[in-house]
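In response to the reviewer comment on reproducibility (Comment 2.3), we provide here a single inverse folding case reported in full, input and output, so that an independent group could reproduce the run without further information from us. The structure tokens appear first.
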């Protein structure tokens, strides 16, 4: 199922999210429309999101491979037609458009010096601009997870700043589950990127995810 590229296995978004679900990491429900298939019905309420779903395209927003806030079936049909025009022979992924109070990023890299390392910080499209992140070697403990949430510059966003209510326990559990998943897979995880993770008053959800495995 995995495509090998220069001794790496890049997972499609649907494969990545299925793997996350196996490790108790909350992510979106979705349907995949393979090339040549017709979308008969969608088991999610509008608004929806449609995305290109390909192992060759890891940064979908950079290539205009995501259509947001699809309000009805006509808009969905138009979005699918446009994505298929831009990305012929590629699968598409359709899911409900999720909302959250704060966008977070969690990453894993197998560092050549420090070994398996987890990253946490503010996410979304501004993640690379602000670089408000912190790191720990894995596996991490409850204490490590709490420290990571408290030491980023945007920590006040997770502590009730201006009435924003965030489920800190859900964030801590996500960090611990990501660390456990990487530990279970040992040295196979070369790179993992959960961005954005939408934090809410009650729980959270991983909206976009990428995993690269080493062979």
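Designed residues, in position order:
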């Amino acid at each position: 199922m995995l495509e090998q590229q220069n001794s790496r296995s890049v997972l499609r978004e649907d494969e990545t999210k299925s793997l996350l679900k196996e490790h108790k990491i909350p992510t979106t429900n979705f349907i995949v429309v393979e090339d040549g298939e017709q979308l008969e019905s969608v088991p999610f309420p509008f608004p929806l999101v449609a995305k290109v779903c390909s192992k060759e395209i890891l940064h979908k927003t950079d290539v205009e491979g995501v259509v947001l806030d699809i309000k009805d079936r006509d808009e969905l049909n138009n979005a699918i037609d446009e994505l298929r025009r831009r990305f012929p022979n590629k699968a598409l992924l359709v899911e409900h458009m999720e909302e959250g109070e704060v966008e977070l990023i969690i990453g894993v890299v197998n560092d050549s010096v420090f070994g398996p390392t987890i990253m946490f910080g503010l996410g979304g499209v501004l993640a690379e601009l602000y670089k408000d992140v912190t790191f720990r070697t894995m596996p991490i403990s409850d204490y490590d997870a709490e420290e990571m949430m408290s030491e980023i510059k945007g920590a006040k966003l997770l502590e009730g700043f201006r009435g924003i209510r965030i489920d800190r326990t859900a964030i801590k559990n996500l960090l611990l589950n990501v660390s456990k998943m990487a530990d279970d897979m040992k040295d196979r995880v070369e790179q993992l990127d959960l961005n954005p993770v939408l934090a809410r008053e009650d729980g959270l959800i991983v909206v976009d995810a990428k995993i690269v495995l080493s062979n």
